Each structure stands twice: as C-alpha cells, then as structure tokens.
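Lab notebook, bench 4. The sequencing result for the construct came back, and we need a structural model before the next group meeting so we can plan mutations. Quick request posted to the team channel:

Model the 3D structure of this chain.
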Amino acid sequence: MTNKYKGRSYKSKTPKLAAGVYVDESAVLVGDIEVEEDSSVWPLVAARGDVNFIKIGKRTNVQDGSVLHLTRSSASNPDGYPLIIGDDVTVGHKVMLHGCQLGNRILVGMGAIVMDNVVVEDDVIIGGGALVPPNKRLESGYLYVGSPVKQARPLNEQEIAFLKTSAQNYVELKDDYLSELD
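Done. Here's the predicted structure in token form:
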C-alpha cells in the first residue's frame, strides 16, 4: 500500500511521509512537515510548514477541512512555535491547530481552535467548537469544553479507551483507501 502524494516543496523542504501514510489528493502539505507511520490526512486539509515545522505522530488522523500552521521566530520568540502532534490523535473535521503541542491519545472535536504555545497533555478530549487561547496547558485526563475552554470533568475509563479506538478506526480506514490506490 503506497501513497503517491508528494506534497509541495518550500525553500528546499518537502513533506516527509513514513510508510503506511495516507494523504488525500485534495490535501495541501507544504514545506517542513513530517508524518509518521500509519497516519492519515483527509480531504481539504491545509498544512503549511513554511516558517517553522509540523510533526504528526504515528496512527494520527487529521480530518477533512482542518488547517495546520505554526508561528515564525521573532525577537521576542526566537524559536517561534512549531506544530507538534503526538501519537494516536484524532483531529476532527474543520479543526484549526496553530503553533501548539498535542500529546498522545487526544481527540480534538470538530471546529475546535487551538492557538499558539498551547500544550495539551496526554489523554485529553477537547470538545467540538472549543477555543483554546494562547499559552494554556490542558492537563491530562480531562474533558475541556467552551470558548474560551474550561476543564469540564475527568474522563472516565471508557472515554480514555475510546481515544485509542478512534485512532485505530482511522488506521483501518486509511488502509482501505490505500488499497484502492494500488
């Protein structure tokens, strides 16, 4: 199963796709982007690794219409903010991720916005439509909802287990899509 998607180069940097990655032909990946094994990037996703880098972990899915970007370096922020997404993460439809760090086993609900210098620890659910303002840290093991986001309650065992199940469901779906390409 091979994806023929190549991405676009920018300043001599071209997206790097590991084995078993699926990127829909309508997605746009530009520049310094790394996508690790068994991950998927779905229709109409726009990801620009132009003024910093984007890293997407293993078994992570970025769903339709999401936008991934980052923050350039400046005098007050010499390293800027890259976008780093961990393993087994589900990024729902039309999510905006900008210069933030997501740990492992996270679900970002549809239409959520996660801003610069946010750190989301492992095992977190961010509700649909949530706004996570800059410089926030979301603690592991909780559901966060609202605009601006607030910690709602601890996740139960079923919800924590579902985080890996959601990611695995998308691994299976992208394998189906890849088999259609061969």
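The two ends are 6 Å apart (CA to CA).
Will bring this to the meeting.
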